[in-house]
Each structure stands twice: as structure tokens, then as C-alpha cells.
Design a protein that fits this description.
It is a single chain. The protein has four helices and eleven strands, in the order H-E-E-E-E-E-E-H-H-E-E-E-E-E-H. By secondary structure, the protein is of the alpha+beta class. The protein has an eleven-stranded antiparallel β-sheet. A hairpin with a 2-residue loop joins strand 4 and strand 5. Helix 1 packs across helix 2. The two termini are 25 Å apart.
Amino acid sequence: MLFKRFIMPLLGILMIFSSGCAQLQQKPDASSATWPAAPEPLTEGFNSSGRLAVKDYGKGSYANFTWQNEGEIQSIDVKTPLGNSVGQLCQDKQGVIARDSHGQIMQADSIASLSQDLLGVALPFEYLNQWVQGYRINHEAYEIQSEDRLYQLGWRIQRQLRPDGQTPRMIRLINQQFDIKLLFDEYYPASTKASGDCQLRHQIGL
């Protein structure tokens, strides 16, 4: 179903496969400046757009996305390569709300619980925004495999930067089931001071 195809990559943008990594240690030769722990609170945000590719046990799907990460509010709009809406998802202080291409509304307390309801598995969005910015998740086991590769929470994460050496061009996440790749066509730093509710809640009167 289209909505599941939207939620799967989105929430694979959006997980918690924490088992199996409790014994990880940072490699001794890894630089402490590579993949530093995310600040608490994280005061950096971004507005971005690009292309999304997801393989689920080898079966692929593709879409375009816009992603606004503004602190309490994160919103993602996913469209087909032809520009038709696949769905919208937004997280705010009230929880998570999503709308598919047919207008069906789904709500949950967290992205993990929403993906669990939809897919039967809790997939990682609450962490992806930090990996995109080059941070590892604080207080979680990890392994730095190279300057652009990290292993954490069951995901092998690869990050490539633009020639400016600052903004991401691509991030790829791989585990036993999923191969998720985001290619950023646009990426701009943004404030994380946004507060309030998702615009989607106001649009549907919630």
C-alpha cells in the first residue's frame, strides 16, 4: 500500500533497533572529532529537500521529499517522482500525525509506536536528524568505522558531504532488512526554536 511504502522509508527516516549493539566499543584509532556525541539539547536544525530510495529485502521504492527539522516540530512531505503526494508526517509536542494520499489520518505518541502499528516493527526517525548532522547518539553504544561511517543502534550509517565540507550530500542507512538512502538536493541550516503544533493538525482541525 502507498501509505505503508511512505511510512516505511519515512520512519526508516524515522526506529529503534537497539538490540545487538550493547557490546560495541569505539575503535581505538578513531578520531574523537569524528562523529561526536550529539549536544543535549541539540540546537541545530535544517530545512532540506531531495530524493529518497528504500530497499526492503531487495524490493525498491523511490520518492522525493521535503524535510523541516525545527526542534519540537519535524515535518516531512513525500511525493512520487511525478510530483503526486504520497503522504505527510509531522511530529510535535503532542505526538506524531500522518496523512496519506487518500486523506487517511493516523496518530501516535511517538514515531516508533506509529511504525510499530503500521509495520509491526519499530523503525529510527528520532535519531536520523542527528546522524544527518554528523553526530552519534549520546549514551548509546557505537563503532566508528571510518570518517564517514558509523555503526549504531543496529544501523550501518554512511554520510557524504558536499564540497563545502559542511552540509550533507547523502546519508545511507543499512541493516538486515532495509537499505535507505537520502540524497539532498537542498540543505539549509535552521533554528530549532520553533514551537507549537504541526500545521497538519490545524489543516484537519485537530
